[in-house]
């Protein structure tokens, strides 16, 4: 009698496991369709909601059956249980990529963030991944703002890490395809099945890492959009701090060059006409030659001398102009009688 009960229980467990496997594969096909772009957030809304319900139900079943324990290592888990480690990754992917409504977007992103972190933390505990998780609970001294996807200040180093992750992802993808072909042919063993699922876990670990960084970068943007443009303007005003006035500086070489060659533009007057006249008046007064009526005759005499010298220079200029005019007339007459090219044509042509 006891043997019959044991056989019945084992058959029930196998049936439950087979049912869970079929449900998981059904939801997984929808996730792959969303990943490949065969369905979208709007066109495949019904399928996405169905996949969520299946995965949430499977999560409750896995928790009730206690398939995973902190006391076990990844090698102690049976190969049939390994796919269910992907449940939080698939749920996070559906929440993060299956909603286009801005009013619901923030809530969906927060759910995706929780699922992604749970997935990576579980793989970290099992030793499947070895990269650092920046939200580690052990690091209590870190500030809350720093518990987000790390942004490496060294652009070159960050680029190298992205290239390494991209190459690793391509290698895992190629290995995953080859193992899927082997397992689909029915000639596989437990080692091949375990290798397939472990490769799938590592592939999704790298994918979820990038997805999580994108989610954490999008959350503040969605918050700003939901607050509206007026709130965003107020935030920008608060962030703007008064800047210190810029200090002027002088390049010594240019300054010395301007003293020699000038400023490079029309000189700016340093004195007004009244100031200049007052300065001249004071300087002349200090030398005892203050301009006044007594100096007027002297200036008149100088004026007469200037006029006489000017008349003499005008006569010289008129003679020079007459000489130039006669020279031009002579040249015109010469050109009339001597055409161009009429020179010594000996031995030419």
CATH architectural grouping of the largest domain? Alpha Horseshoe
Q: Number of helical runs? A: 10
Look at the structure and give the CATH class of the largest domain.
Mainly Alpha
Structural class: mainly alpha
What count of structural domains?
2
- The radius of gyration over CA amounts to 47 Å
Q: Biggest β-sheet: count, sense, barrel? A: none
Number of strands: 0
Strand percentage lies at under 5%
Q: What's the quaternary structure here?
A: single chain
Outline? elongated
CATH superfamily of the largest domain: TAP42-like family
Percent of residues in helices: 55-70%
Distance between the termini: 139 Å
The fold-level CATH name of the largest domain is Serine Threonine Protein Phosphatase 5, Tetratricopeptide repeat
Compressed to H and E, one letter per element, the order equals HHHHHHHHHH
Average pLDDT, rounded to a whole number, is 78
What are the segments in which pLDDT stays under 50 over at least 5 consecutive residues?
137-146, 293-300
Which key terms come to mind for this protein?
mainly alpha; Serine Threonine Protein Phosphatase 5, Tetratricopeptide repeat; 10 helices
Notes on the structure:
The chain has 349 residues and is an all-alpha fold. The chain has 2 domains: 7-231, TAP42-like family (Serine Threonine Protein Phosphatase 5, Tetratricopeptide repeat, Alpha Horseshoe), CATH 1.25.40.540; 256-334, no CATH class. The protein is 68% helix and 0% strand. It contains 10 helices and no strands. Helix 2 runs antiparallel to helix 3 and helix 3 packs antiparallel against helix 4 (102-126). The chain is elongated.
């Amino acid at each position: 009698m006891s043997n019959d009960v044991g056989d019945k229980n084992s058959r029930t467990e196998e049936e439950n496991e087979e049912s869970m496997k079929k449900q998981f594969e059904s939801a997984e096909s929808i996730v792959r369709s969303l990943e490949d772009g065969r369905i979208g957030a709007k066109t495949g809304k019904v399928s996405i909601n169905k996949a969520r319900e299946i995965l949430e139900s499977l999560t409750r079943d896995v928790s009730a059956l206690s398939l995973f324990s902190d006391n076990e290592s990844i090698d102690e888990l049976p190969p049939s249980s390994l796919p269910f480690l992907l449940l939080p990754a698939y749920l996070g992917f559906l929440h993060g990529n299956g909603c286009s409504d801005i009013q619901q977007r923030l809530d969906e992103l927060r759910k995706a963030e929780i699922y992604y972190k749970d997935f990576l933390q579980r793989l970290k505990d099992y030793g499947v991944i070895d990269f650092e998780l920046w939200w580690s609970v052990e690091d209590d001294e870190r500030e809350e703002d720093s518990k987000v996807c790390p942004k490496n200040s060294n652009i070159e180093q960050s680029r190298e890490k992205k290239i390494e992750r991209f190459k690793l992802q391509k290698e895992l993808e190629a290995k995953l395809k080859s193992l899927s072909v082997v397992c689909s042919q029915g000639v596989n063993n437990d080692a091949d099945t375990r290798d397939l699922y472990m490769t799938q876990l590592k592939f999704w670990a790298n994918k979820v890492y990038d997805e999580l960084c994108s989610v954490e970068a999008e959350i503040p943007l969605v918050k700003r959009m939901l607050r509206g443009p007026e709130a965003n303007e107020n935030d920008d005003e608060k962030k703007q701090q008064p800047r210190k006035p810029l200090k002027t500086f002088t390049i010594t070489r240019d300054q010395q060059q301007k003293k020699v060659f000038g400023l490079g533009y029309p000189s700016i007057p340093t004195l007004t006409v009244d100031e200049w006249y007052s300065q001249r008046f004071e300087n002349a007064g200090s030398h005892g030659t203050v301009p006044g009526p007594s100096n007027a005759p002297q200036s008149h005499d100088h004026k007469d001398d200037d006029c006489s010298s000017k008349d003499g220079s005008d006569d010289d200029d008129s003679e020079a102009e007459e000489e130039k005019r006669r020279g031009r007339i002579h040249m015109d007459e010469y050109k009339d009688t001597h055409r161009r090219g009429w020179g010594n044509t000996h031995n030419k042509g």
